């Protein structure tokens, strides 16, 4: 655990960590219960889906800007109706 050149080995570290654990010098780690773990996983999935949706929305927005910029306002109601009709 200590970075001393030539002195650090995994075997010594294991013995040192075991000794610290036996005398209660290492704090216990928090392991959440299954419900909390599942909620965390669902939160991570939701974040991933939202980011993915935002990425695709920005990509479509960029394409529409390059194609329709001279004809229509990209943020207008008609443009969103056009996007909806494309995906139907």
Automatic annotation (TrEMBL):
Please give the biological process terms from Gene Ontology that the record holds: DNA transposition
Its domain of life reads: Bacteria
Q: Name one GO molecular function term.
A: DNA binding
Give one Pfam hit by family name.
DEDD_Tnp_IS110
Domain (Transposase IS110-like N-terminal): residue spans on this chain: 4-67
InterPro entries documented for this protein: Transp_IS110-like_N, Transpos_IS110
Could you identify this protein by its name?
Transposase
Supply the source organism for this entry.
Streptococcus suis
